[in-house]
Design brief:
The chain is an alpha+beta fold. It has two helices and four strands; from the N terminus they run E-H-E-E-E-H. The protein has a single domain, classed as Double Stranded RNA Binding Domain. A four-stranded mixed beta sheet has the order 1-2-3-4.
Length: about 120
């Protein structure tokens, strides 16, 4: 898994970079084999005014094809990062479960066809 981190309008502070790396390692490591690239983008939507204006966007490119995205806005970067990683982890889990169950249905159908080709008597 390749991790890219960017921040608009200011330089990414080291403690924030460390927090992101820790959260990604904790939240996404179980999906490592299916993740090609993870891009995290942080933005302060309205500058020093305050409020719920810190945005964390997480985009994940899957090795089997496809992209998933989660965007969270919160009052501080730490909360936005944590919630965005949690959300993208749920989306990856759901996507993989859906893809796996579809594959299983096709395999079961093929197996039934091979085992019971029909009586020709």
């Amino acid at each position: 898994m390749h991790l890219d981190i960017s921040m608009t309008s200011e330089r990414l502070p080291k403690p924030l970079k460390d927090l992101i790396e820790k959260r990604v390692a904790y939240g996404l490591s179980r999906f490592g084999h299916t993740l090609g690239r993870v891009h995290i983008r942080l933005a302060d939507l309205n500058g020093p005014k305050g409020g719920v204006d810190k945005r964390c966007s997480v985009s994940v490119w899957l090795t089997g094809g496809g992209t998933l995205r989660a965007v969270i806005e919160d009052s501080d970067y730490g909360s936005a990062i944590t919630r965005a990683i949690d959300r993208i982890a749920r989306r990856i889990r759901d996507h993989l479960a859906k893809r796996h169950s579809g594959r299983r249905r096709v395999e079961d159908k093929v197996r039934r066809t091979v085992q019971d080709p029909g009586d020709t008597d």
